[in-house]
Fold this sequence. Notes:
With 40 residues, the protein is mainly β. It has no helices and two strands. It has strands at 17-21, 30-34.
Amino acid sequence: MMKPGESVSLTFTSPRLFRYDCSLHPKDMHGSVLVGGGAG
């Protein structure tokens, strides 16, 4: 669990939809990150 003032960083290496759930509140807190391809 993160403490106030802490942060996290993720690097996505392929374009697609990544889904996630909160491990403390899996029924109520979830979302997704849509990663697109970079412009050449």
